[in-house]
Design goal:
The protein has 242 residues and is of the alpha+beta class. It is 32% helix and 27% strand. It is globular.
Length: 242
């Protein structure tokens, strides 16, 4: 009964925190680098995995989850914006991500909103990574996605008519595609731009075609013990303006 009451309290705090997060969470995966790490470019939520050499940890105890979520609920909204992420929190239920929160040294991004990162939040995250064994990098990431990515490129070539239909592209588009994979299926897709094309708008026609391939056609040959994980790769859409 005591455990049930704790879980109900935790579920209620999640519902109050954001409407997008599931009321049931069984674990959080923490992707982390040092808060004071200096990078050549700002690291945002979508290009985190592609741009930074992070370590991965997991917390699944009710006490640990409740403590982390309680502090997230206390964060104050910030008038500032801009992402330079050092830690990504991925909340899971039943093997699927139900919420992603990105934490920087100064700002935390939740959905489209920015909050001031508290020193206590950083301390809680640091405590988790100090008391948990590093996962995935050392034991689960033995799978190489390159053969599947080559298969994606073949699909993309077949979609060339749809990609360029009534669309004029002045310059080559270098797109970073990030896929969250679970059970051999793509469960989420995100796009970011090459750092030299930060202001370039990616046409929806192109992102829609890529999503269709990843969600409807792609089957990733992940091993049975492979946990949900982001895989990032580059896609270059050639200019067609003569």
């Amino acid at each position: 009964m005591r455990f049930l009451l704790i879980f109900i309290m935790f579920a209620c705090s999640l519902s109050a925190f954001t409407q997008n997060i599931s009321s049931q969470v069984d674990s959080v995966v923490i992707k982390y680098v040092s808060w004071d790490l200096i990078t050549d470019i700002s690291v945002d939520c979508t290009n985190y995995e592609a741009c930074i050499d992070y370590k991965t940890y997991s917390e699944s105890t009710p006490h640990g989850l409740k403590k982390l979520m309680k502090e997230l609920n206390k964060l104050n909204m910030s008038s500032k914006s801009g992402e330079d992420i050092r830690c990504k929190l991925e909340f899971f239920f039943g093997g699927k991500i139900c919420q992603t929160i990105c934490v920087g040294d100064k700002l935390t991004k939740i959905d489209a909103n920015y909050y001031a990162t508290s020193s206590k939040l950083k301390s809680i995250i640091e405590h988790i990574i100090k008391t948990k064994r590093e996962i995935w990098k050392s034991e689960d990431i033995s799978w190489n996605p390159n053969s599947c990515i080559r298969k994606f490129y073949q699909y993309l070539s077949d979609y060339s008519g749809r990609l360029y239909n009534n669309l004029i592209i002045d310059h080559d588009l270098n797109i970073i595609v990030s896929c969250n994979i679970h059970g051999g299926k793509t469960v989420e897709v995100r796009f970011s731009r090459d750092k030299n094309q930060a202001k370039v708008i990616i046409p929806e026609q192109i992102t829609s075609a890529i999503k269709d391939i990843l969600y409807q056609k792609m089957v990733w040959d992940t091993p049975s013990n492979y946990k949900a994980q982001w895989v990032s790769f580059n896609v270059i859409i050639k200019a067609n303006k003569s």
